[in-house]
Specification:
Shape of chain B: globular
Distance between the termini of chain B: 76 Å
CATH topology of the largest domain in chain B: Rossmann fold
Strand content of chain B: 15-25%
CATH class of the largest domain in chain B: Alpha Beta
CATH superfamily of the largest domain in chain B: Thiamin diphosphate (ThDP)-binding fold, Pyr/PP domains
Largest sheet of chain B: 8 strands, mixed
Number of strands of chain A: 13
Strand order of the largest sheet of chain A: 2-3-1-4-5-6-7
Helix content of chain A: 25-40%
CATH architecture of the largest domain in chain A: 3-Layer(aba) Sandwich
Strand order of the largest sheet of chain B: 19-18-20-21-25-24-26-27
Distance between the termini of chain A: 33 Å
Oligomer: heterodimer
Largest sheet of chain A: 7 strands, mixed
Radius of gyration of chain A: 22 Å
Number of strands of chain B: 27
CATH topology of the largest domain in chain A: Pyruvate-ferredoxin Oxidoreductase, domain 3
CATH architecture of the largest domain in chain B: 3-Layer(aba) Sandwich
Chain lengths: 332, 735
C-alpha cells in the first residue's frame, strides 16, 4: 500500500459475483491486513444482468466517507464492454492498476476502450474460469490481489476457504485453483495512451425541477424502448433463420423482451437491442428457426433492429436497475 | 471492561449479532428494503440453531406490528425491523404499543417514503415516528447500531416504552465496516438480565385489562404519564450510556461534538453524514476556518438543551435535513430552532435539505454547507434560510414520441365473444392472430433475462381489446418497467403501494363512470386492470377481496412467482412448502418455507364474483382466451380475477431458457391446475393425460429440488396431498 489509504472500484454485471469479491477484499483488509476497511455496492432492486459497481476502501485511519470511490487505486472490469458506460473508467490516474477480463492484447484493449494512461493488467478470466470449473469472480480476485502489489495471496486463499469453502466444500479446490491461476496469469504493462481520464460524475439528468412534470408523472409513454439491453446478455443470443419459420408466434408468446416483430402475421425478425439472450424462444421454436448463437457469430445479428425505427438513439440502462449487496443468491 | 472482538459487518448484520446475543422470544416482521437483511440473518441463525427466536413473517407491516405487540403483552422480548412505507403502514400500531407501555425494540433502516417510490435512504420515514411516543435512538454507524440495540433494550425495559433504533438505509445498513462486539454472549445476557413485566395478558391469577376505553378526563393524565416517561428517559439514557462505557470503553454523550466548542460555524446533521462532515471540518480547519459539527444519538426524547449548549459559541449553525416537512424545513431543524429559542441562543440558522432518495453525500457537500455558514457571517450577505441542496433545474429536453398509444383504434383484433345460457364463449383467437396485438408493455424494461412477468403481462394483454388502464402494485413488474425518466407503458398506468391497489383502481373505475355519467368525458369503454405479484396479494389481500365483494368493473391479474422477489426473495404465502428462501433456510432447525401455499382463487371464489381463472404460459392460447373472457365479464358483470404462475429464474434458481418447461410441470402435476369458475361453476380447462408427481415440478427448481430427496419426503408428501385434494375438489365441483 502506497499511502495512508487505498481505494478499489469493481465494475461488473449483476450475476457475476462481483459483490462477493468486494466483500472478500473488505474482509482481507479488516481481518487479515488489520486495517480499517469498508465494502459496499451500488444499490437498487434485485435484478440480474445490469451493471453494478463495488467499492472497497482500506485505511490506516478511521474511514469517515461512505460515498463511491471516485479515484480508485485499483480498478477492475469484469467485462470489457462495461467501459462504454459513463463513470466506468472515470478517475483513473497514471499509477492506477486497472485489471480487465479480456482476451484482447494490451494495445487492442487500450484502444478498444480508449484507456487513459495507467498500469494495465489483463487476463482471459472467462477462459481460466472454464478451465478450472470455477467462477469468474474468483479468477478476478486472484488477479486483483496480484495487481495490488501488497495483498498476499495467502490472505485471499484464506477468505475463499472461509466463504466458498464453507458454503460449497466440493467447489473449494477448483476455486482455489482459479484464484491462483488469476494471480499467476495476469500480466501488466504500463500504458501511455493519449486518452484523457474523465472525472467521476454523479448522475444528473436533463430533466430537473424546472422542466420535470409535477408529481413525477411521466408523459413520454413507452420511452423505455430507447434503453439498450444488450449488455445484459451473457455471451449468447438467438439466431433467426427466416426460411425455417412457420410464423406460429410461439416465440412472441415466450419472449419477455418483445424482441419479435410480427407484421400481418409474418415474423419479420428480431429487435436485438432489447434481447437479453434468455433463449426462451430457441426452446419453444418447433422448427428450429431460432437457434442458439454466440455473440458476434453472425454479422447480421444486430441489423434487424431497423425494423422498428431508424431514429432511436439507444441509451444504456443505469446502475439504478441493479442490485443489493446480499441478495438471496449471494447468501446461500 | 468486557472482552470484545472485531467484526467486519454491515449495520443490519451487527443488529443480527445483538439480536442473537439477546435471543429475543419473538420477531414479527414483514420484509422491506433496506431492513430485510435483519429478518433474513435471524432466520439463518434460527435454521442453524444459534437462536431460538420465533420468526413470524406477517402479511404486512401492520400485522407485523400487531404480532410484536401481542408478543410483548406476554412479557416476551420482541424485535422488529422495517423501513419507509413499512414504518408508515405500521404507524397506527406504534402509539398503541407506547400508549399501553409495553417495551420492545424496532430497527428502522431509514428510507424514502413513497410516492414516487424510491428504495434508497433518507429520513422521511423516521420523522413520521416522532409523535408516536417511542424512544428513537439514531445510530450514525454500524458500531452504534450494535451498541444501541443492547442499550435500547435495557432502556425500553426500564422506562416501559418501546424503542426504535434508526440508522441510514444502505449507507449504514449495507456498508460493511469494522466494529467491536462483546465476545462472550454470557456478558450480554448478564447486561440485559431478565425482564419481569409488571403486567402481562397471560397471568390467570392476576387478570388485567390492557387497552382501556378512556375518554376525558382520564386521557390527559395518561398522556402526561407518557411525557413524564420521556423526560425520565433522558436521565436513564445518560445513565445507560455511562454504564455501557464501563463495559465497552465506548463513550456516548448523547450530543456528539466534533471541533464544535470554539467553532464559528457548526453543521448539525443526523446519521452517517456526520462522519463525512468531520472530513470537511478537518479540511476547513487546515484553511484556518473554525468549523465544527454536531450530531445527536437520540431524537426522542429530544435533547434540545444539550444541542443548544453545543452551539452556544457559534455565529452560524447550518442544519442538514435529510427530509422535508414541506414548510419551514425538515422536522430536525424545526426542533433545533425551537431549542435555540428555548435556551436563549441566537446564532444565524441555515437549513438545507439534502441527500434525498439516497443521493450521495461527499465531503465536498459538507464543506459547501459549512461555507454557507461562513458566508452568512459576512456583512451584507443574504443567504436563504431554508432551501434545498442538490436539486437542479434541468436542461432543455426534446421529447420524442416513439409509438402510437395503444387504444381501441389499433387493438381491436376481431375476437368473437358470445354469451348464451350463462356461459361466455370466445372464438377466433390463436397465437398467430394475437401476435398482431400492439404491445402495451414495450421493449426496454429492465426485468431479468428470462423473467416470467413481462411474458404473462403480454399474454394477458394479447387477449384484451381496446382501451386499457393498468394499475400495478409495488413489485418487480412495477420497478423494472417505470424507472424514471422512462416508462415501458404505452397506455395509462398507475402505481400504488400494494396494500391498496385494488381500492385505488376501484376509485378510478367509479370516478371514470361518474364523470362519464355527468357528460364530462366522452362515452366509450376502458378496461381497468390491476396487476399484482403474490406479495401484493399477501399484504393487499384484504383490499383486493373487498374490491371483489364490491364487484367493480375491473380485472385483478396476479402473477404468482411464489416469493417476494423484488426484495431479494423472501418467502410469500404462496411459496411452495419446504422451499428455500432468504427467510426460510434449510438447516438442522428449519426445513424451508413452513406452511402450505395459499389458495388465492378459492378466496376470491368466496366473494361471489362472476369470473375466476388460472392461467399459465405453457398453455398460451388458453391464457389469451381467458383474458378476453375476463374482459367481457369486467365489462358486463363486474370484477374478474386471473392468476398466472410466473417464472423467476433468479430466485427459482433455474435456467431462464427452460422456464416454460418448468411452468408446464407445475400444470402437468396439477400443482397449478388450469381452470375457471364462471358464475360459480368450476370447469377444468386442461386435464393432464398423465398427472406428474409434484416432485417433478419441485425438482426442476433450485429452490425446491432438495424436496425430491428422501430427507424431505414428508414435506413432499404433504404437498402432494394438498395438490391431490385440491385437484379432487376441482374435479368434483366441475359442471
Amino acid at each position: 500500500m502506497r499511502g495512508e489509504k487505498y481505494e478499489i472500484r469493481i465494475e461488473s454485471i449483476g450475476g457475476f459475483g462481483a459483490n462477493l469479491i468486494g466483500k472478500l477484499l473488505g474482509e482481507i483488509g479488516a481481518v487479515h491486513l488489520g486495517m480499517e476497511a469498508q465494502s459496499f455496492a451500488s444499490y437498487g432492486s434485485e435484478k440480474r444482468g445490469s451493471p453494478v459497481k463495488g467499492y472497497v476502501r482500506y485505511s490506516k485511519n478511521e474511514i469517515r466517507i461512505n460515498a463511491p470511490v471516485r479515484e480508485p487505486d485499483l480498478l477492475a472490469l469484469f467485462k470489457l464492454s462495461l467501459a462504454e458506460k459513463e463513470n466506468t473508467l472515470a478517475g483513473i490516474k497514471k499509477d492506477t492498476d486497472v485489471v480487465i477480463n479480456t482476451d484482447l492484447s494490451f494495445e487492442e484493449t487500450a484502444e478498444r476502450i480508449k484507456l487513459p494512461p495507467c498500469r494495465l493488467w489483463i487476463l482471459d478470466a472467462l477462459n481460466i474460469a472454464v478451465e478450472c470449473s470455477a467462477r469468474l469472480n474468483i479468477v478476478m480476485l486472484g488477479a486483483m490481489v496480484k495487481a495490488s502489489g501488497f495483498i498476499p495471496l495467502e490472505f485471499a486463499e484464506e477468505v475463499v476457504r472461509s466463504t466458498v469453502g464453507a458454503r460449497y466444500p466440493d467447489k473449494l479446490t477448483s476455486n482455489l485453483m482459479a484464484l491462483k491461476m488469476g494471480y499467476s496469469r495476469v500480466e501488466m504493462k504500463e500504458m501511455n495512451t493519449g486518452y484523457k481520464a474523465e472525472k467521476y460524475k454523479d448522475t444528473q439528468r436533463d430533466v430537473g425541477y424546472d422542466n420535470g412534470t409535477i408529481g413525477g408523472v411521466n408523459t413520454i409513454f413507452a420511452n423505455a424502448v430507447t434503453n439498450d439491453l444488450q449488455g445484459c446478455r451473457e455471451g449468447f443470443l438467438p439466431h433467426f433463420i427466416r426460411e425455417k419459420c412457420i410464423d406460429c408466434a410461439l416465440c412472441d408468446s415466450t419472449c419477455p423482451d418483445m424482441v419479435f416483430q410480427f407484421r400481418d402475421g409474418v415474423n419479420m425478425g428480431m429487435d436485438l437491442y432489447h434481447c437479453k439472450g434468455c433463449l426462451r424462444c430457441v426452446e419453444v421454436c418447433p422448427t428450429a428457426a431460432l437457434v442458439k448463437a454466440k455473440e458476434g457469430e453472425f454479422d447480421d445479428n444486430i441489423g434487424n433492429i431497423y425494423l422498428r425505427d431508424k431514429d432511436f438513439s439507444f441509451t444504456e440502462i443505469g446502475e439504478n436497475s441493479w442490485v443489493d449487496s446480499e441478495s438471496y443468491n449471494n447468501m446461500t | 471492561m468486557l472482552t470484545q472482538k472485531s467484526e467486519f459487518k454491515s449495520a443490519n448484520e451487527a443488529v443480527c449479532i445483538a439480536a442473537r446475543q439477546i435471543d429475543y422470544h419473538v420477531m414479527g416482521y414483514y420484509p422491506i428494503t433496506p431492513s430485510t437483511q435483519i429478518a433474513e440473518g435471524m432466520d439463518l441463525m434460527k435454521s442453524k440453531g444459534s437462536i431460538s427466536t420465533v420468526m413470524v413473517a406477517a402479511e404486512g407491516e401492520h400485522s407485523a406490528a400487531g404480532i410484536c405487540y401481542g408478543a410483548a403483552l406476554t412479557g416476551a422480548r420482541v424485535i422488529n425491523a422495517t423501513s419507509a412505507n413499512g414504518l408508515l403502514y405500521a404507524l397506527e400500531q406504534l402509539p398503541v404499543q407506547s400508549g399501553t407501555r409495553f417495551p420492545m425494540v424496532m430497527n428502522v433502516a431509514c428510507r424514502t417514503v413513497s410516492a414516487p417510490l424510491c428504495i434508497k435512504g433518507d429520513h422521511s420515514d423516521i420523522m413520521f415516528a416522532l409523535n408516536t411516543g417511542w424512544i428513537i435512538l439514531f445510530a450514525k454507524d454500524n458500531q452504534e447500531a450494535y451498541d444501541f440495540n443492547l442499550i435500547g433494550l435495557r432502556l425500553a425495559e426500564r422506562i416501559k416504552l418501546p424503542v426504535i433504533v434508526a440508522y441510514d438505509g444502505f449507507f449504514t445498513s449495507h456498508q460493511k465496516k469494522k466494529l467491536l462486539v462483546f465476545e462472550n454472549d454470557g456478558d450480554v445476557k448478564d447486561y440485559i438480565g431478565t425482564y419481569d413485566a409488571p403486567f402481562t395478558a397471560i397471568d390467570p391469577d392476576n387478570p388485567v385489562t390492557i387497552g382501556s376505553y378512556m375518554n376525558e378526563p382520564d386521557i390527559i393524565n395518561n398522556k402526561y404519564q407518557l411525557r413524564l416517561a420521556m423526560e425520565q428517559a433522558k436521565f436513564l439514557l445518560a445513565e445507560e450510556f455511562e454504564k455501557f462505557e464501563g463495559m465497552s470503553g465506548r463513550k456516548y454523550n448523547i450530543v456528539h461534538r466534533y471541533m464544535s466548542d470554539d467553532a464559528d460555524v457548526i453543521f448539525i446533521v443526523l446519521g452517517s453524514a456526520f462522519d463525512t462532515t468531520r472530513e470537511a471540518v478537518d479540511k476547513l480547519r487546515m484553511e484556518g476556518l473554525k468549523a465544527g459539527t454536531v450530531t445527536v444519538q437520540a431524537i426522542r426524547p429530544f435533547f434540545g438543551k444539550e444541542i443548544a449548549d453545543a452551539c452556544r459559541n457559534a455565529g452560524a449553525v447550518v442544519i442538514g435535513d435529510r427530509q422535508d416537512s414541506y414548510g419551514e424545513g425538515g422536522n430536525f431543524s424545526i426542533e433545533i430552532k425551537s431549542a435555540f429559542y428555548e435556551n436563549d441562543i441566537r446564532p444565524r440558522v441555515i437549513t438545507r435539505i439534502f441527500g434525498l432518495g439516497g443521493k450521495e453525500f461527499y465531503a465536498e457537500d459538507a464543506e459547501n454547507m459549512l461555507r454557507l455558514g461562513f458566508e452568512s457571517l459576512e456583512e451584507g450577505r443574504e443567504i436563504k434560510s431554508v432551501d434545498y441542496y442538490g436539486a437542479y433545474t434541468g436542461k432543455e429536453i426534446h421529447n420524442k414520441r416513439y409509438f402510437e398509444p395503444v387504444t381501441e383504434k389499433n387493438s381491436m383484433l376481431g375476437y368473437e365473444v358470445t354469451e348464451s345460457d350463462g356461459k361466455v364463449e370466445v372464438k377466433g383467437i390463436n397465437l398467430k392472430k394475437a401476435a398482431a396485438m400492439p404491445k402495451r408493455l414495450v421493449a426496454g424494461h429492465s426485468a431479468c433475462s428470462g423473467c416470467g412477468i413481462p411474458v404473462n403481462i403480454n399474454l394477458l394483454l394479447k387477449g384484451i381489446e381496446g382501451n386499457v388502464v393498468m394499475l400495478f402494485h409495488t413489485g418487480c413488474g412495477m420497478v423494472v418497467t417505470t424507472g424514471y425518466p422512462t416508462t415501458a407503458f404505452n397506455t395509462n398506468y398507475v402505481h400504488n403501494l400494494f396494500q391498496n391497489g385494488a381500492a385505488t383502481l376501484s376509485g378510478i373505475v367509479e370516478g371514470y363512470k361518474e364523470r362519464q355519467r355527468r357528460g364530462e368525458i366522452p362515452e366509450g369503454k376502458i378496461t381497468f386492470i390491476m396487476v399484482s405479484g403474490d406479495g401484493g396479494m399477501d399484504i393487499g389481500l384484504g383490499s383486493a377481496l373487498a374490491a371483489a365483494v364490491r364487484n367493480h368493473s375491473m380485472i385483478i391479474f396476479e402473477y404468482d412467482n411464489g416469493g417476494y422477489m423484488n426484495t431479494g426473495y423472501q418467502y410469500s404465502y404462496t411459496t411452495p412448502t419446504g422451499a428455500k428462501s432468504a427467510t426460510s433456510h434449510l438447516g438442522p432447525n428449519e426445513d424451508g418455507k413452513p406452511y402450505l401455499p395459499k389458495d388465492t382463487p378459492a378466496l376470491f371464489e368466496a366473494t361471489g364474483i362472476n369470473y375466476i381463472a388460472t392461467v399459465a404460459e405453457s398453455n398460451p392460447q388458453d391464457f389469451i382466451v381467458k383474458a378476453r373472457k375476463a374482459q367481457y365479464y369486467a365489462d358486463n358483470y363486474g370484477l374478474a380475477y386471473i392468476k398466472a404462475i410466473s417464472a423467476c429464474p433468479l430466485n427459482w434458481q433455474d435456467e431462464p431458457r427452460y422456464e416454460r418447461e418448468v411452468i408446464k410441470k407445475a400444470v402437468e402435476s396439477c400443482y397449478f391446475p388450469l381452470y375457471e369458475i364462471e358464475r360459480g361453476k368450476t370447469r377444468l380447462t386442461y386435464k393432464p393425460k398423465n398427472k406428474l408427481p409434484v416432485s417433478d415440478f419441485l425438482a426442476s427448481m433450485g429452490r425446491t429440488k432438495h424436496l425430491a430427496g428422501e430427507k424431505y419426503s414428508n414435506i413432499t408428501n404433504t404437498l402432494q396431498q394438498w395438490v391431490d385434494k385440491k385437484w379432487d375438489r376441482l374435479n368434483g365441483s366441475e359442471g
